[in-house]
Write a structure and sequence with these properties.
This protein is of the alpha/beta class. The chain folds into 2 domains: 154 residues, VC0802-like (2-Layer Sandwich); 213 residues, Rossmann fold (3-Layer(aba) Sandwich). The chain contains 10 helices and 14 strands. The chain has a 7-stranded mixed beta sheet. A 7-stranded mixed beta sheet has the order 10-9-8-11-12-14-13, with helices on both faces. The protein is elongated and about 70 Å long.
């Protein structure tokens, strides 16, 4: 059995990146794994309301539950209900209801519907009024087939929902180029690079069609995107307005500029206030300019030192030859084969520019291409 004041459930897209995003958005909290790979206990100085606000920009948080309990299914409804009593018996303001969902297949011999009815009966016994249409507070029950466990607790905010990025897919935008990032990965990268939302700024120095800046703006972050090509800036601006239903972004701007001279092209009030860099450099037919890919990256990151906050983070996304998509860390560096150069050269470039690698993840694009997602932290150089 696991009990926690706050439990967070994750969507199932890429659990390693989802976990990294959760930790990045809650840096002052202790995030502890549970028997289910999609459930995490959260403890620390923040209030439940503070946790909810901090996780609003998350791409991978499915739900937040308070007064939560996890129990392994042992075939006894009565035994499970005995354990759930603490979660059920809370001071509730207003009407209540129950909600069930599951991760994976059904647990053999366990009916969430039956458990939901039993929980509803217990809530009535505790003096609560049921409202199945529009309850003030909802008690959730989730099963996880892989761990044979059941999670129960009170929803903080809404019941589980998808990230809702289908309408924002690159192919739906007015200005589209191939190999654009999925909005989930773009949003996740921003959150890992920048951490909690603050007055500081997310920087995309090679913005292309503006996917990163769209997600930064929709999550209410301050952001700036640069591109040396005026046609790309014009197209990215049309995408950004489209994402805001024809209105200008209230928090983000797009500028024509040179990524290798950020100190020159970024206005002075940005200097020292860049919380994080997100980089999905153009390669192949999308690449422009006279620099080789790693040379362009090195010049960009060297110029970034003029504008970064001292605690800046970065997520760098590189195309690599196909390899296994790792949901958890554990692959060896010699397995990584970038499309351009070697991984040793990438490591050297990052080190020279003042970055230390915190974590790496892989994401499959198609059968002949994988993405390497590198999370790095800025280290002040003498």
């Amino acid at each position: 059995m696991v009990m926690s004041e706050v439990m967070v459930t994750l969507r199932g897209w890429h659990l390693a990146l989802a976990h990294a995003e959760l930790q990045a958005l809650l840096p002052t909290m202790t995030v502890t794994s549970t028997p289910s790979k999609r459930w995490y206990a959260v403890e620390g100085p923040m209030s439940v309301e503070g946790i909810e606000r901090a996780l609003e920009p998350a791409a991978n948080v499915e739900s937040i539950l308070s007064h939560a309990t996890i129990v392994e299914w042992n075939g006894s409804y009565e035994g499970v209900m005995d354990i759930f009593q603490t979660s059920l018996q809370q001071d509730i303001n207003g009407t209540v209801s129950t909600y069930t969902w599951r991760h994976g297949k059904k647990i053999d011999g366990c009916s969430l519907s039956s458990l939901s009815k039993m929980c509803g009966g217990a809530l009535v016994d505790f003096g609560n009024n049921i409202d199945l249409e529009q309850a003030d507070q909802t008690f959730g029950l989730c099963s996880d087939a892989a761990s044979s466990c059941i999670l129960a607790g009170w929803f903080v905010g809404s019941t589980p929902s998808a990230f809702g990025a289908e309408r924002r897919q690159a192919t739906e935008r007015p200005f589209f180029k191939p190999v654009s990032l999925d909005p989930r990965l773009a949003r996740t990268a921003i959150n890992i690079a920048c951490g909690p939302i603050s007055t500081n700024i997310v920087l995309d120095p090679m913005t292309g069609t503006g996917g990163f800046i769209i997600e930064a703006s929709l999550s209410k972050r301050n952001g700036v995107g640069l591109d040396h090509n005026s046609a790309m800036i014009e197209g990215a601006q049309s995408n950004l307005k489209w994402a805001h239903d024809g209105e200008d972004s209230p928090t983000c701007v797009l500028l024509r500029g040179d990524a290798t001279a950020l100190g020159t092209f970024l206005p002075q009030h940005y200097h020292g206030h860049i919380a994080g860099i997100v980089l999905d450099p153009p390669y192949g037919r999308n690449s422009q300019g006279s620099y080789q890919p790693l040379e362009l990256l090195e010049k960009t990151l060297m110029s970034a030192k003029d504008v970064l906050a001292k605690t800046a983070g970065m997520v760098l996304i590189l195309p690599i030859h196909p390899m296994t998509v790792f949901e958890e860390s554990g692959f060896h560096h010699d397995e990584i084969k970038p499309l351009h150069g070697t991984f040793s050269e990438v490591q050297r470039m990052l080190s020279v520019c003042g970055w230390t690698i915190e974590a790496m993840f892989t994401e499959r694009v198609h059968k002949s291409l994988t993405r390497l997602v590198v999370h790095a932290k800025f280290v002040l150089l003498n």
